[in-house]
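Page 47, continued from p. 46.
Same chain as before, 282 aa.
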Amino acid sequence: MKKFRFFVVLLGLFALLGFSKTINAQETVNVTITVKKDDTQVGDVVSTTGTLGGTIKVDTLLPEVTDATFMFWTINGVVRTDLDIDSLIKVTSKLDLVAHYASTGKYSVAYLDTNTKLIDVDYVNVSGTLTPPVSGPNPKDVPGRKGTSFDGWALITNYEAPASTALENPGAKAYFVAKYTVTETAEYTVTVDGTPLAGTYKLNDTATAVSTDPNFSYWKDETGAVLSYESSYTFTVLNANVTLTSVNEGEVNEPLVSIRRFVGYETGKNAFIGHYELDLTK
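Result:
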């Protein structure tokens, strides 16, 4: 059974479609902006506001940072490698921004969890030694993951490479992502329309439910929640048996976002894995 490349879980991020929250026109959101140079705060935290669903540009609000080069933003703790210091940033219901700078002659080597949340950063020059985080309980340690063991790190640009805990200085700004191996031995079943699929599944295995009914509408779980409008639906098995039922009332063609809770993924956190289906031709 094929595994997903990343052991990806969304930790309480519900910004996609708002779910039960109604977005009011012109709703104001408080925004905080922190600037760090070599991981040390520069000046005071800046407070401003933005309009929910709009964009904000904050570079002109930042305290002056001398003898330094901008490296990356974190937004609510998540690293954004695609943003420049003067980029427009989408305003969500929570917006805590941190601009990360490195002193002249240095660059950042950031360590990310699989959900791209920042764990720690090294600021080094070309002859510097890296000190990647280790697995442990401290804020800048690699967090424990249910049913897995921490293997080490791989560059975000080459995540399929073997993991390593002894990292060489890459010589330029870089992002390393944690890699885990599933150690959970429990096995789970997947039942589709009353018939168990062949074999058993372990944590983070993928399974596929297929319907050939010409009137297929969607798949639902045992609670009645709609999971997919695709007649061939591939999903990740978490830490429970799965029961799917097909509903055959004719084709449905509309966007879908579904969220499944993953109990115990990280101690003290509410963890969820998401699935979305969008018609990009419209």
